[in-house]
Amino acid sequence: MSIVNYQLSIVANGMSNPIGIFDSGLGGISVWQALYDALPHESLIYLGDGARCPYGSRSSEEVRQFTEEAVERLLAEGCKLIVLACNTATAVAIKGLREKYPDVPFVGLEPAVKPAALTTKSGVIGVLATERSLQGDHFRRNEEKYGSEVKILKGVGEGFVEAVERNEEHMPETEVLVRKAVEPLVEGGADKIVLGCTHYPFLRDVIARVAGDGVEIIDSSEAVARRVGVLLDEYGLRAEESAMPEYRFLTFADEEYAERLREKAFNR
Questions:
Q1: Which region among 35-44, 140-149, 253-262 has the lowest average model confidence (pLDDT)?
Q2: CB-based contact 35:21 (threshold 8 Å)
């Protein structure tokens, strides 16, 4: 959809247009759930790629291409605001998307380094993320800003995304993967562990068990929902309280995957 057609769609339908949410797969459902809880009158369209997940180890060129394809699809559906519910896509593509679509409100994901850095008692925080997210400009800026005040330990969640995609969050093999990534952060003194990928909150229970008492697990889903609310008001796009919201799930995979997205969203 061209930006002109996008603007005409918003003018015609206004507040009733849906919010679009995109992720490489199932992980962004954690953000969908936060939006569902915080904004009960808003219609939501979730697009989980599914066919090319995970993004974390892909090249920047691939991630940028896939993300732009997803955004074009969501704009074609008339979305009034788009959430990149994928830390990797945010790190690689959001700057270019904002330049390409200057009138479209975008909300991205980045590891919640700030709240962790401001509340740590040990002076050490851990960040679990994909390799691509840890290399992104958003994370590097936060690392530069807060790294002089606290020690930031980084860990790549090897196999985390794949485990969530296979619905294997509570399998013994998954706990082995989690221990490999989390134990060095705890042994290094971290009392806050930031989840820097939207798939990771689905592993929250096992991460917390491995980390032990006294370590707080932080993700940014609720902060994203608050930011979306602010932008809806700023742009005059908030749905009326009388609105009857609709929820749709799209994918570049097959209908079976779309059904898995629906199940993940509502089965909590």
A1: 140-149
A2: yes
Alpha helix locations (H) across the chain? 3-13, 29-38, 60-76, 87-100, 113-119, 131-134, 137-146, 160-165, 172-187, 204-211, 221-234, 255-266
pLDDT at 59 over 70: yes
- Residue 241, both tokens: 């309280």
For tokens 């509570």, the residue is 170
Q: Which two tokens stand for residue 147?
A: 């790294």
d(CA 98, CA 93): 9
For residue 5, is pLDDT > 80?
no
The beta-carbon contacts of 238-241 under 8 Å, at least 24 apart in sequence, are 238/15, 238/41, 238/42, 239/15, 239/16, 239/39, 239/41, 239/42, 239/43, 240/15, 240/41, 241/41
* pLDDT score for 7: 46
Mean pLDDT for the chain overall = 92
Which residues participate in catalysis according to the annotation?
86, 197
Q: Are 156 and 181 in contact (CB under 8 A)?
A: yes
Q: In which element (H, E) is residue 217 found?
A: strand 216-218
Q: pTM to 2 decimals?
A: 0.87
C-beta atoms surrounding 118 within 10 Å: 12
With tokens 């992104």, the residue in question is 136
Within 8 A by CB and 6+ apart from 154, the residues are 126, 127, 129, 134
Q: By three-state DSSP, how is residue 154 classified?
A: strand
Those residues with Cβ within 8 angstroms of residue 260's Cβ, 6 or more apart along the chain or in another chain: 26, 167
